[in-house]
Amino acid sequence: MQSLAGESVVVIGSGIGGLSTACYLADAGADVRVIEKNEQLGGRASRLEKDGFRFDMGPSWYLMPDVFERFFAEFGRTPSDYYDLEHLDPHYRIFFKDGDRVDVTPDLERTKDVFEEYERGAGEALERYLEKSKENYEVGMEHFVYEDRPRLRDYLDLDVARQARGLSLLGSMQGHVEGYFDHPKLQQIMQYTLVFLGGSPTNTPALYNLMSHVDFNLGVWYPEGGIGAVIDGITDLGRELGVEYETGRPATEIKGRTGGFEVETASGPIPADLVVSNADYAHTEQELLTPERRGYDADYWEDRTYAPSAFLLYLGVEGEVDELAHHTLVLPTDWQDHFDKIFEDPQWPDDPAYYLCVPSETDDTVAPEGHSTLFALVPIAPGLEDTPEIRDEYRDRVLADIAANTGTDLRDRIVLEERFTVSDFANRYNSHDGTALGMAHTLRQTALFRPPHRSKEVDGLYFVGGDTTPGIGMPMCLISGELTADAVLDDHGTARTP
């Protein structure tokens, strides 16, 4: 087993990826210090607490429980050592804007019956689709997610080719789903998970049909206390392993190389043998490194396809909102126009598709008695102008749309309201153009086409998080931490004395 005993490591940023890397490196014997720009740990998985209401500001879906179980097992723990999980039923509710409503539940037979109501034979088609999705998930996770393959030659191997045979590597999700379902609403149900990958049905590779296995077979869960409880669990694990954390200390420059780094901060430099950046990849390269130490120039970052930003309303309201499930989606019957306004012709969407999260439906600790906690999230293009006037107008549009399409009128019941959108993502998280997630999972930005974990120019500098492999989302960032730690150990680890 490799050891990093005697090595000091500074991790810049405390998102899921940074926290994960810190645990692996501390477990290998390194002295690990995590510094965080903001006032709390968790990166985009921050919490907002005010007047008795508590919100998860970022991720709110607990998916792929197997990934979390594997992570904690690496350290001889289980998730239940830190937080409890509840299987949600329904997994989520969908309101279509023509008046239809669909609940997707843990009972697959019930879901097949719902599909049959829309299209004859769709229930059996769903079963076939999920069989393929499960195959892609199991092969993809074992051979292409948990194993980092950063170079083309890593794929020019007979064993890799054999494992890849049968995976849905080519084509778009739109084309793949159309091979199983004709009804546009069924296609939407199978494609909504693309929001978690920051893509659209036409620009996301068909491989990501594996997300339907995640949704329908592995289930949608809620950690008691919200996603913030997961962050607490991972940071508590880190402390047990010896990780030190410091909030309110943004990095301003990375100087030096292996064995002689200095991470400059507003309150003075921090020396380190090695540095891992969990800050936005583009921000790290363009703002924390001098030009000759950057792996990519500004044109590279401008040429990437970015996942959406978001318009978020965090609302504390009087009374119940029984029409809404814990996770609720509101979808136009034709949502291509919304995607076009994100990826093709960036502008605020006129007829938005959006997501409503109501944790108080499951957890009575997130709102005062007699009240509900919820937030509305509208995916929008990164880089949009978001003046106070635009925010006011769009806030009214979203609340009116919720009332019209879910039967829940919140407008006269709001006792707490906070807004968060493009410029807030850019300012709080240093995210490029205010993207909420980072680089989208297009075909030319998947696997080896994402930026690597090792800096291309600076020995001893590493990257972790959604912009590198395996990509966007809490489970992927958790795995990204393992892959980054593996790279550090491969480069700097020594054999441990038995």
Binned strand content: 15-25%
**Sheet having the most strands:** 7 strands, mixed
* Mean pLDDT value: 91
- Roughly what percent helix? 25-40%
CATH superfamily of the largest domain: FAD/NAD(P)-binding domain
Indicate the low-confidence ranges by residue numbers: 154-158
Distance between the termini: 9 Å
Task: Give a quick set of tags describing it.
alpha/beta, FAD/NAD(P)-binding domain, Guanine Nucleotide Dissociation Inhibitor, domain 2, seven-stranded mixed beta sheet, 21 strands, 19% strand, globular
Would you give an account of this structure?
Residues 16-489 form the Amine oxidase domain. InterPro entries: Amino_oxidase (IPR002937), Carotenoid/retinoid_OxRdtase (IPR014105), FAD/NAD-bd_sf (IPR036188). Pathway: Carotenoid biosynthesis. Its EC number is 1.-.-.-. GO terms for molecular function: oxidoreductase activity. The chain has 498 residues and is an alpha/beta fold. It has three domains: 2-84 and 225-304 and 446-495, FAD/NAD(P)-binding domain (3-Layer(bba) Sandwich), CATH 3.50.50.60; 109-149 and 158-213, no CATH class; 305-429, Guanine Nucleotide Dissociation Inhibitor, domain 2. It is 35% helix and 19% strand. It is built from 16 helices and 21 strands. The chain has helices at 16-27, 65-73, 108-118, 122-145, 158-164, 173-178, 184-191, 194-197, 210-218, 227-241, 281-288, 298-302, 336-343, 388-406, 422-429, 474-492; strands spanning 2-3, 8-12, 31-35, 47-50, 53-56, 85-87, 92-96, 101-104, 221-223, 244-246, 251-255, 261-265, 270-272, 274-277, 309-318, 327-331, 354-357, 371-380, 414-420, 461-463, 494-495. The protein has a seven-stranded mixed beta sheet with strand order 8-7-16-17-18-15-19, sandwiched between helices. α1 packs parallel to α16 (474-492), α2 (65-73) runs parallel beside α16 and α4 packs across α9. The longest helix is centred in the N-terminal third of the chain and has 24 residues, at 122-145. The N and C termini lie close together (9 Å). Residues 154-158 have low confidence and may be disordered.
